[in-house]
Amino acid sequence: MNMSLIKTISFASLFSGVILFSSCQSSSYTLSSVEGESIVVDHRYDATPNIEAEKILLTYKNRVDSIMSPVIGYSLIDMSAQRPESTLSNLVADILRQSTTTYIGKQADVAVINMGGLRASLPKGDVKYGNIFEITPFENTLCIIKMSGKDMKELFQNIASVRGEGLSGAQLVVSKEGKLISATIGGVDIDDNKMYNVATVDYLAEGNDNMVTFKKITDKVQPDGATLRQIFLDYVKAMSAQGKKLDSKVEGRIVIK
């Protein structure tokens, strides 16, 4: 069994906080202390593999590989996610913004995806099912939010305060202190009274990852079954069917000054 990646299991964390015991009968025993230690699982275990365990896991490994290994597209470059802007976050935000056409008949004005929701990089070359699952391991679903221009400016300040998130359809200039200096949508100044459609995921729509402005907005549409992962998969397969390859650029969507 290959365990070359070092994993640390902390049993002490299982006992953090207050532990309560209940019983139908009273007991004179009380918990006096809890001790724990970390067990490092690394390459040392490869020297003496458990043959029986390998046999049991092989059945499941083959099934998983049969699902995750098929090639569904091709990426022209290595893509990763980091602030203030990156190739992978730009790509995913663009895909999310385009996906709203299916549900509201047009592309959203803006899309926002959190960097923390993109959990792996996309390597150059063949793109497999497994790559998309690694990048988007959570069951986050598309959420389309209608917001006023005034609220959009507030949202962009949320993004500025964390020095950037995945963004499509807008351009922000942010100070090193995390203050929004300026913002445009589609290259045009924001109209406080205009209503804009924003594509994001349910996790952010609830106000998580400092996107607190989303939390106060009530005009939200969450299409059934529209997970970010499936939207990403469908996009890659559609591009491949058209003979196109994945590509992305860092192009000044968020600039820190």
How does this model look, in words?
The structure is a single chain. This protein has a single domain, classed as Alpha-Beta Complex (5'-nucleotidase,  domain 2), CATH 3.90.780. It contains eight helices and 13 strands. It has helices at residues 51-68, 87-99, 101-104, 129-135, 149-161, 202-205, 212-216, 228-241, and strands at 7-10, 38-41, 71-75, 110-113, 125-128, 142-148, 166-168, 170-174, 180-185, 188-189, 195-201, 220-221, 254-256. A five-stranded mixed β-sheet has the order 7-4-11-6-12. A four-stranded mixed β-sheet has the order 10-9-8-13. Strand 8 (170-174) and strand 9 (180-185) form a beta hairpin. The longest helix has 18 residues, at 51-68. Mean pLDDT is 90; it is low at 1-23.
**Quaternary:** single chain
Q: Which structural class fits the helix and strand makeup?
A: alpha+beta
Helix fraction, binned, reads: 25-40%
Strand arrangement in the largest pleated sheet: 7-4-11-6-12
Largest sheet: 5 strands, mixed
Q: What is the class in the CATH system? A: Alpha Beta
Could you tell me the CATH topology label.
5'-nucleotidase,  domain 2
Detail the poorly predicted runs.
1-23
What is the number of helices? 8
Separation of the first and last Cα atoms: 50 Å
CATH homologous superfamily (4th level) name: 5'-Nucleotidase, C-terminal domain
Cα Rg: 23 Å
Order of helices and strands: EEHEHHEEHEHEEEEEHHEHE
Q: Any chance you could write out the topology, listing elements then pairs?
A:
Layout: E1 7-10, E2 38-41, H1 51-68, E3 71-75, H2 87-99, H3 101-104, E4 110-113, E5 125-128, H4 129-135, E6 142-148, H5 149-161, E7 166-168, E8 170-174, E9 180-185, E10 188-189, E11 195-201, H6 202-205, H7 212-216, E12 220-221, H8 228-241, E13 254-256
Parallel strand pairs: 4-11, 8-13
Antiparallel strand pairs: 1-2, 3-5, 4-7, 6-11, 6-12, 8-9, 9-10
Helix pairs in contact: 2-8
